[in-house]
Amino acid sequence: MSRVLIVYFSRTGATRRVAAALATTLHADVEEIIDRSDRSGTLGILRCVLDSVMRRSASVEPMRHDLSAYQMVVIGSPVWAGRVSAPVRAWLATHRRRLPRVALFCTLAGRSSESALKELCELAAKQPVARCAISQRNAPQGEESRALNLFAQRIERTLAHIEEIEWAA
Ligand SMILES: Cc1cc2nc3c(=O)[nH]c(=O)nc-3n(C[C@H](O)[C@H](O)[C@H](O)COP(=O)(O)O)c2cc1C
C-alpha cells in the first residue's frame, strides 16, 4: 500500500496532469476533490474569482481515502486570483486537523505563486516538507519540469528519513 496520498482539485486539467505525474514518480494514491459547483463558462470563472477574492469555501464531495493510512499528503491547487482555489480551501478546512506531513504545489498561468503557496501553508496549518509552483505551460504530458523533479525528490528523501527512524526505533 502507498504511503503517499495526492489530493488535488483541477478545473481544466493542468493540476490533474501534475498530480498524475507525481503519482507515477511517488507510487502514490490519488484523491481528486470533487466540487459541487458549476464552474464552467464565463459565469463559472466569475464564481471562481469571487470565491477566491472573498476567501469563500466551496461544497465538495466527501473523500474516498482514509487519511490516517498515509505518512505524507501532497496537496495541489490551481491559483485563482492569486489565491488557493475554493474547493481546496474547503477540503483543508474539513481535513487539516488529521493531516500527517504535507507537501504543497500549485499550478498557474503566470509567475507569481507566492501568495497562493503562502495561503496553502496557512490553510494546512503545517510547515510543508516541500512546495513548488508549476506553470501551466510546464504542466506536461510526459515531460516533467525540473521543479517537479526536485519537489518529488524532497518528498522521497523525507519518506526515506521516516523509514530510517522507524527501523531504528
Ligand atoms: C478564475 C481563475 C483565476 C486565475 N487566477 C490566476 C492568477 O491569479 N495567477 C495565475 O498565474 N494564474 C491564474 N489562473 C490560471 C490558473 O491558475 C491555471 O490555468 C491553472 O494551471 C489551472 O489549473 P487547472 O487546469 O487544474 O484548473 C486563473 C484561472 C482561473 C480560472
Jot down its keywords.
Flavodoxin_CS, 41% helix, alpha/beta, Rossmann fold, Flavodoxin, FMN binding, binds flavin mononucleotide, single chain, globular, 169 residues, electron transfer activity, Flavoprotein-like_sf
Structural account:
It comes from Caballeronia choica. GO terms for molecular function: electron transfer activity; FMN binding. InterPro entries: Flavodoxin_CS, Flavoprotein-like_sf. This is Flavodoxin. There is one protein chain. With about 170 residues, the protein is an alpha/beta fold. The chain has helices spanning about 15-25, 40-55, 85-95, 115-125, 145-169; strands at about 5-10, 30, 70-80, 85, 100-110, 130-135. The chain has a single domain (about 5-169), classed as Rossmann fold. The protein contains 5 helices and 6 strands. Strands 1, 2, 3, 4, 5 and 6 form a 6-stranded mixed beta sheet that branches. A hairpin with a 2-residue loop joins strand 3 and strand 4 (about 85). The radius of gyration is 15 Å and the shape is globular. The two termini are about 20 Å apart. The model has no long low-confidence stretch (mean pLDDT about 90). The site of flavin mononucleotide (FMN) has 20 residues, from helix 1, helix 2, strand 3 and strand 5.
Give the topology, please:
Blueprint: E1 4-8, H1 14-26, E2 29-32, H2 41-53, E3 72-80, E4 83-84, H3 86-95, E5 101-108, H4 114-124, E6 130-135, H5 146-168
The structure holds flavin mononucleotide (FMN).
Flavin mononucleotide is lined by residues 10-16, 45, 48-49, 78-82, 107-110, 136.
GO molecular function, one term: electron transfer activity
InterPro entries: Flavodoxin_CS, Flavoprotein-like_sf
Protein name: Flavodoxin
